[in-house]
Amino acid sequence: MLHTPSGGAGTGTTVADRRLMSIGTVLNVLRDEFPEVTISKIRFLESEGLIEPQRTPSGYRKFSPEDVERLGHVLRMQRDHYLPLKVIREHLEALERGERAPLPSLGRQRGAEGAGGPDEAERPTAARVGRAELLAVAEVDERQLDEWETYGLVVRLADGGYDAEAVTIASLVVELGRFGIEPRHLRAMKAAADREAGLVDQVVAPLRRHRNPQTRAHAEARTKELASLTGKLHSALVQSALGVRLP
Known about the structure:
mainly alpha; Multidrug-efflux Transporter Regulator, Chain: A, Domain 2; 3 domains; two-stranded antiparallel sheet; 10 helices; 55% helix; globular
């Protein structure tokens, strides 16, 4: 792991220490670009060997600006290129060895607009990923993905692919599994999400049926706004029930 020295000769550790950040500070720095990132996610990436923060004598993690930059790079590769952690790790290790390492990609970068080739429709985009790509990103096998589908956690589209949210859901299901929470335990959360979605649909349905095209177009923005609010409320209610508060 490469780290740029924090202080010059004769400065001792004072300058370096000032540059180090707690995991809570790192979370706040990253959340502007990655609103879904959590402390659990950062710890998971550390456990996978993608970052190596320093430790204080009492065991607290301390991150350098270079660690934060690296974290952002890893999260960007996951988000924009749907790359599994193994591929990301190998890419970063190649860069550290001084090798030319073009960024591998399972498909078109998020938001990128290309001329399109004969296989363009088969390549994963921000709106759709194929089954093979989802398996690779989540690093699970067919049996596990079938189980998730059985419980309705991810839903296959008519063309056999999955929407982009399936990537996020898959990653979270895997992370929860590290704590012993199995897909069957998540059925209640899925049912609650369906009820919340039904409530949002009730509110925006009149907008979708409106004669005015602008009003109908406004329905999508209103849906996103309500989805964000209900998600925040759900998170706050869970934290309140557990008596905890996330940073």
